[in-house]
Design goal:
The complex is a heterodimer of chains A (298) and B (431). With 298 residues, chain A is mostly helical. Chain A is built from 14 helices and 2 strands; from the N terminus they run ααααααββαααααααα. Chain B is mainly alpha-helical and 431 residues long. Chain B is built from 19 helices and 3 strands. The chains are: A mainly alpha (298), B mainly alpha (431).
Chain lengths: 298, 431
C-alpha cells in the first residue's frame, strides 16, 4: 500500500481527537458523569450559533468561547437543578440539554439569514473533507489542514490539563470530601474539567459531530475499564484504543464508502461488544459442571 | 389576534389534525415518561430515541421508500435491541447505569450514521424525507401518518390506564408485587414495549434529540405539585398538551419557526416555574421556610442567653454583649431583638435588655427543653454528658408540648441536667 497523505492526515486527526476525548472520558466515567458529557455536547449548540452570529464565521474564536460558556452554563444548570431544586440527577441532565438544544435550533431558525448552520452538521460532522480545508496564512503560506491544527492544540491542552492537575483530578474523582478537606477546590476542578470537555466538543464538532464526541468520550474508557481497574493502564489502554479506532474506522469507512466518524464509533462499539462478551458474568453452562446450589424456592 | 382566534377555534382542519396529533403524542409520552422518571430511568428514553436511527435506516433500505410501517417497525426493533442490551449489560457487567446508557446511545447512533451515509450515497431521491424522521417535523405529518401515530398513542394511553395498578407496583415496589403473585417480569417487559413505542412515534413530531424532553420534563415538573400518582399523571399530561398546543401555535404564527423546539421550550418553562413557585418543594417556598426557621432559632437562642444571664444574677444583657455573643450577625440580632420586643418578651431599658414576665416563662421553656433533652440523651441513650449539647441545641426548637410532657414523665420530673444545672420550671424561685 502506498503512502496516502490524505489518509494519514485523517487518521492522525482522528487519533488526536479520539485520544483526547478518551483521556477526558476516563475521568468523566470515574466521576459517573458520562451522561453529563452527552448533555454538554448537545448544550453547546446555542453557543456555537451565537458565536457564529457575532463573528460571521464558523471557525472563529467567538464560536469556541460561546460554546465553552454554554458548556459551563449547562454544568451549572444541572448542578443547580439537582442541588437547589432537588430534581433527580438523570432528569436534571435531560431537562438541561433538551432545553439548550431546543434554544439552539430556535436561534438557528431565527438567524437563518446570517448563520449557515443546521443541526445535522452539529450532530454528524464530516472528517473526510479535512484535507481540503487548509489553514492559509495572510501571506499565502499553506500550513496544512486547519482541523488537524485544532485537534493538535486540543490534544495538547487536554494532556497538559491532565498532567498538571493529575493529583487533583484523581482525588476529586475518587473522594470528593477528602479532597475538600485537603484544600483542593473540587468544584473549581470540576468546572475546569467541564470547560475542557466543552472546548473539546467544539473543536471536534465540525469533524466528528456532537454525538460522536460523546461516543469517543464514553466508549473507549468503558471498554478499557472492562480490562483493567488501575488508572495508568486505564489511560494507556484508552489512548491505544483511540488510535486503533481511528485507524480501523478510516479503512472500514473507505471499504464500505461510508461516514468515517460513524465508522469509528461502530468500530469502538465492536471493541466494546467483544470486551463485554469476554468480561461479563458467564452463564453457568460455560463455567463448568460444578453447578452453584440452587436457592431455596417456594 | 386574528391569528389567535383562527388558531384556537380550530376552523382549519389541518390545524385541528396537528393539534390532535400533538395532544395524543404528548399525553402518551408524558404518561410513559412519568413512570420511567419515577423508576429512576429517565435517560433510558434518551438512549432509545438515539438508538432507533439504525432501525429507521434499515427499514428504509428494506422498503426502498419512505414507508411509515416499515420505518416504524424498524425503529421499534432497534429500540428494543437497545433496551434489551442496556438491561443485559446492567445485569452482567460492573458498569454503572449512566455509562451503559451513554455507550448504547452513542454506539447505536454512530452505526445509524454509517447506514445513513451509505443510504445518502445510494442516491435514492426519497432520502430527503428521512430527515423528518430524525429531526422531527410536527407540521409535516400527513393525515394518514397521523392516523397511525395517533392510534398507537391511543393504544399506549389505554394500556397504561387499564394496567395502572400493575405499573404502579412495578415502579414503587416490584418485590412486593412479585410476592403477591403479579408477573413482574412480563409487566416491565410490557412497559418497555410501550416506552419504545412512545419514543418511536414521538420522534416524528419532535426529533431524536428532543424526544427526551417529551418524556422527562412533564413528569419532573408535575412531581413538584403532588405526591400522589394519579394527579401526577394527569398534571404531566396537562403540561405536555399545553406546551404542545403552544408550540404549534408559535410555529403557526411564525412559519419559519420549528414546532418541536418550541414545545420543548414551553415544557421547560413549565418545569422551571414549577421548580420555583410550587408550594412545599419549590425553591422560593423552601427559601422562605428556611429563613423563618433560622429567625426562630436565633430568637430562641437570644432568649436562652438572656435567661442564663438571669440565672447568673444579672438583670439583663447590654446590646454590646449580645452582639458579642453572635459575631457577624448584627442584622439578624437586631431583627430578633425587635421581634422579641414586639412580642413583649423583652424590655429595653437604655442599652440594657432584660426579659419581661412573659419573656421569663418563654426563656425558661426553651432552657427547660434543652436541659431535658440533654438529660434524656444522657440517661436513656447513654451518651456522655459532654456530647449532648449539640443535639439539644437543635432539638430545643422542635420539641412540642406533648413531647415535653412525655419526656418529663419518662425522666420522672428531674431536677438537674447532666451538667448539674437546674431544670427550670414555672414554680422556680428565679421569678
Amino acid at each position: 500500500m502506498t503512502f496516502d497523505s490524505n489518509a494519514f492526515l485523517i487518521i492522525f486527526t482522528g487519533s488526536l481527537i479520539a485520544v483526547s476525548c478518551g483521556f477526558l472520558g476516563v475521568f468523566m466515567m470515574l466521576r459517573k458523569m458520562s451522561m453529563t458529557g452527552d448533555a454538554i455536547s448537545h448544550a453547546v449548540l446555542p453557543g456555537i450559533v451565537i458565536g457564529y452570529f457575532v463573528s460571521g464565521s464558523q471557525r472563529s474564536l467567538e464560536v469556541i468561547i460561546g460554546a465553552g460558556l454554554l458548556g459551563i452554563l449547562a454544568t451549572l444548570m444541572i448542578d443547580w437543578l439537582r442541588k437547589k431544586a432537588r430534581v433527580q440527577l438523570d432528569a436534571s441532565i435531560g431537562i438541561t440539554f433538551t432545553l439548550l438544544f431546543a434554544v439552539g435550533i430556535i436561534l438557528i431558525n431565527l438567524l437563518a439569514y446570517k448563520v449557515d448552520l443546521d443541526q445535522e452538521c452539529v450532530l454528524y460532522g464530516e472528517i473526510a473533507y479535512l484535507p481540503i480545508d487548509s489553514w492559509i496564512t495572510k501571506n499565502g503560506m499553506n500550513l496544512g489542514p486547519r482541523i488537524t491544527w485544532l485537534a493538535g492544540l486540543n490534544f495538547f491542552f487536554v494532556v497538559g490539563f491532565i498532567y498538571l492537575l493529575f493529583k487533583e483530578l484523581i482525588l476529586t474523582s475518587f473522594d470528593e470530601n477528602f479532597s475538600s478537606v485537603m484544600g483542593i477546590p473540587s468544584k473549581g476542578i470540576n468546572l475546569a474539567l467541564m470547560s475542557i470537555v466543552s472546548y473539546t466538543t467544539v473543536s471536534s464538532f465540525e469533524s466528528v459531530g456532537a454525538i460522536l464526541v460523546v461516543a469517543l468520550l464514553v466508549v473507549p474508557p468503558v471498554t478499557a475499564f472492562l480490562w483493567t481497574k488501575s488508572l495508568m493502564p486505564l489511560l494507556k489502554l484508552t489512548g491505544g484504543l483511540g488510535i486503533l479506532i481511528a485507524l480501523l474506522g478510516y479503512y472500514l469507512a473507505y471499504w464500505f464508502d461510508s461516514s468515517i466518524a460513524g465508522m469509528m464509533v461502530t468500530v469502538a462499539g465492536i471493541f466494546f461488544g467483544i470486551s463485554v462478551l469476554i468480561h461479563s458474568k458467564k452463564p453457568i453452562w460455560l463455567i463448568g459442571t460444578s453447578k452453584s446450589p440452587q436457592p431455596f424456592e417456594i | 389576534m386574528e391569528d389567535f382566534v383562527y388558531f384556537f377555534t380550530f376552523q382549519d382542519p389541518s390545524i385541528a389534525w396537528v393539534v390532535l396529533g400533538i395532544t395524543l403524542l404528548g399525553v402518551g409520552s408524558a404518561y410513559v415518561g412519568t413512570f420511567s422518571f419515577l423508576d429512576k430511568k429517565a435517560l433510558l428514553g434518551d438512549a432509545i430515541s438515539h438508538a432507533v436511527l439504525p432501525g429507521i435506516c434499515l427499514g428504509f433500505m428494506v422498503a426502498g421508500e419512505k414507508n411509515p410501517v416499515y420505518i416504524v417497525s424498524g425503529a421499534f426493533l432497534s429500540g428494543a435491541v437497545a433496551t434489551f442490551m442496556s438491561s443485559w449489560l446492567k445485569r452482567n457487567t460492573k458498569l454503572s447505569e449512566d455509562t451503559i446508557i451513554a455507550t448504547i446511545l452513542s454506539v447505536f447512533f454512530g452505526f445509524g450514521i454509517v447506514l445513513l451515509t451509505a443510504l445518502q450515497k445510494s442516491g435514492n431521491p426519497e432520502i430527503a424525507g428521512l430527515n423528518s424522521f430524525i429531526f422531527g417535523n410536527a407540521i409535516g405529518i400527513s393525515e394518514a401518518d397521523l392516523m397511525l401515530y395517533g392510534g398507537l398513542s391511543l393504544v399506549i394511553i389505554l394500556v397504561l390506564t387499564i394496567l395502572l395498578k400493575e405499573f404502579r407496583l412495578m415502579v414503587f415496589d416490584p418485590e412486593y408485587g412479585k410476592a403477591i403473585g403479579f408477573p413482574m417480569k412480563s409487566i416491565s417487559f410490557l412497559f418497555n414495549v410501550l416506552m419504545i413505542l412512545a419514543v418511536v412515534i414521538g420522534i416524528q413530531a419532535i426529533g431524536v434529540v428532543l424526544m427526551a424532553a417529551l418524556l422527562i420534563t412533564p413528569g419532573a415538573a408535575a412531581r413538584f405539585w403532588t405526591d400522589r400518582l394519579n394527579p401526577l399523571l394527569i398534571l404531566a399530561a396537562l403540561f405536555s398538551v399545553l406546551s404542545g398546543i403552544l408550540g404549534t401555535y408559535v410555529s403557526f404564527v411564525l412559519p419559519q419557526m420549528p414546532t418541536g423546539p418550541w414545545v420543548v421550550v414551553f415544557l421547560s418553562l413549565f418545569a422551571l416555574i414549577s421548580f420555583l413557585i410550587s408550594p412545599k418543594s419549590g425553591i422560593i417556598f423552601r427559601y422562605f421556610a428556611r429563613r423563618k426557621y433560622l429567625r426562630k432559632t436565633h430568637r430562641d437562642h437570644l432568649m436562652k442567653a438572656l435567661y442564663k444571664a438571669k440565672e447568673n444574677g444579672k438583670s439583663g444583657l447590654t446590646i454590646a454583649e449580645i452582639y458579642q455573643l453572635y459575631p457577624y450577625q448584627k442584622a439578624a440580632t437586631n431583627h430578633s431583638i425587635s421581634g422579641l420586643s414586639k412580642n413583649n418578651f423583652i424590655a429595653t431599658n437604655q442599652s440594657l435588655i432584660s426579659l419581661t414576665e412573659s419573656g421569663i416563662s418563654e426563656g425558661m421553656r426553651i432552657v427547660r427543653l434543652h436541659r431535658l433533652w440533654e438529660l434524656y440523651l444522657n440517661e436513656s441513650m447513654n451518651i456522655a454528658p459532654d456530647h449532648v449539647h449539640d443535639s439539644a441545641e437543635k432539638l430545643e426548637h422542635l420539641i412540642t408540648p406533648e413531647l415535653e410532657a412525655l419526656l418529663e414523665k419518662r425522666l420522672n420530673y428531674p431536677a438537674l441536667d447532666p451538667h448539674q444545672e437546674t431544670i427550670p420550671r414555672e414554680n422556680h424561685d428565679l421569678r
